[in-house]
Amino acid sequence: METIGIPLMDSVLKMFPWDKSKEYQNLVERYGEGIRSVLEELLLLPLLHFDSVNDLSESIGKDKNQYYDLLKDPKINWIKLLQEITWYLFICILRVYQNSESKSFHSRWRIRILLDDTLIRRWSLKMAGVYNLYNHIDKHYMYAQKVVFLAVSIGDGKFVFPLVYAFTEPKTHPIHQKHTQIAVDILSALYEFTKEQGLTFQGLRLVGDSGYTSKVIVSAAKTMGLEFYGSLTASWTLILQDGSTIGVKSLKNGRIPAQARKNSYFEKEYYRLIAYHPDLGVVALSITPYIEAGTHETKYWAYVCSNPDIACHLIIREHTIRWKIEQMFKTFKHNIGIRFYQGISISGQHAWFALTCLRFIFVQFAFKISSRHPSLRWNISHKKFGLAAMMRYIRNHYRLSFNSKRDKRLHYSLLRFSA
Asked: In terms of domains, do 99 and 242 share one?
């Protein structure tokens, strides 16, 4: 797929960093130069509004087995392919960030490493990585894959992309690891890779939710020179500056031994505390109100930062930025096909997860290019040009009418330019 006739996508395909991966070079040696075309077609499958690999192969006249054989190939290290590309991007951005001497640049384009996990609902235990998991949102158990993600956010969420993912295993599995330990292992590997490139984590922040606020995570962050931002569950107990102890449960219910504050950066009142914990050390707490769903009572979030000198509104802002990874998960599940069924084997699942992460990076590149070139986003307002608008335009202008018998075929321009 040297070109597909859609200028925006063609522009991204030209710059996509396949060649930065040794695993990709191994694929070229095994499959030939045509493997790039196959990978790119799989990458764009849901963006071009195809429903399946069969749909794609029928529309552009290719044998579907070349796609399935690639997805099922157990010799391909899909995690390595993804990691080599994403870590290359991370190092490029980090080098520019740390080589700049401008404090303003460091403030506006600060790099955050985001930690979180998500559940991918499945319908059979036969699929790789699936077991019975509790869904805390819907309050019931379901068959799902639990996936730990590390992602990077540049600036105030201006550019977000996944670094790497890992499946978790049930507690009964011989190689079971806690999700926090999985995150630390990945973070440690990234840290060692960063040092090999002559760089450090100086100036970077590590942001996670309450599930990633633990001794092992905070200790790793301190060792690597990262500022840690997290949130506390009700079970934590802290020691205040006057020597008294207080439970986070009391803070969450509004029993806060401090005066409310206000700031132009934050519309609601908040509270600031300095406290100590044997595992976390000295930390700053920023306590903010919210209305609890269902009861409509006022409850409080207890956000924590390993830097006790940080301003409260900055702690709050970091957790606002953290929601970018939740938006990434939403995009994965609803728009770019992470839940598509592409086989039950571990190789097939890793193939599709890795391709979905790369597809998300492709979309981020497309947004960055289109922001500078209005014609590439079809002169749609930059504020209104999102993934839904892009996919809708492709569906409406590069597909035949849905009333046609060939409603699954692309417009002639794609057929004409496809390899």
From this structure: yes
CATH of the domain at 178: 3.90.350.10
Regarding whether 83 and 52 lie in a shared domain, the answer is no
Number of structural domains (the chain) is 2
Q: Is 256 helix (H, G, I), strand (E, B) or coil?
A: coil
In a domain, 296, yes or no: yes
Which of 80, 86, 229, 217 shows the shortest CA–CA distance to 162?
A: 86
Q: What integer best gives the mean pLDDT of the chain? A: 88
As a whole number, mean pLDDT of residues 381-406 equals 72
Is residue 118, in this structure, part of any structural domain at all? yes
Place of tokens 């504050």: 261
Say yes or no: 352 and 233 in one domain.
no
218 and 280 Cβ atoms separated by less than 8 Å: yes
Distance CA 250, CA 270 (A): 15
**Other CB atoms closer than 10 Å to residue 236's CB: what's the count?**
19
User: How far from the centroid of its chain's Cα atoms is residue 20's Cα?
Assistant: 20
- The pTM of the full predicted model, rounded to 2 decimals, is 0.91
Following DSSP, what letter does each residue of 119-185 receive, concatenated? EEE-S-TTSTTEEEEEETTTTEEEEEEEEEEEEEEETTTTEEEEEEEEE---TTSTT---HHHHHHH
Average pLDDT over residues 128-147: 90
Place of tokens 């790369």: 358
Q: Which of 85, 52, 21 is nearest to 364 (CA)?
A: 85
Strand 298-305 vs strand 205-207: parallel, antiparallel, or unpaired?
unpaired
Strand-pairing partners, residue 218, are none
**Where residue 341 falls among pLDDT bands split at 50, 70, 90?**
low
Domain hosting 352: range is: 7-76+335-417
Please state, in angstroms and as integers, the Cα–Cα distance from residue 161 to each residue in 4, 93, 152, 222, following that order: 24, 12, 6, 24
Element (H, E) at 104: helix 103-108
**Exposed / middle / buried, residue 181 (Cβ in 10 Å: 0-12, 13-18, 19+):** middle
> Can you tell me the distance from the alpha carbon of 206 to that of 221, in angstroms, rounded to the nearest whole number?
7
Q: Does residue 291 register a pLDDT over 60?
A: yes
Same domain, 137 and 109: yes
- For residue 134, tell me if it sits in a domain: yes
| CA 97 – CA 378 distance, rounded (Å) | 32
| Boundary of a domain, candidates 307, 334, 361 | 334
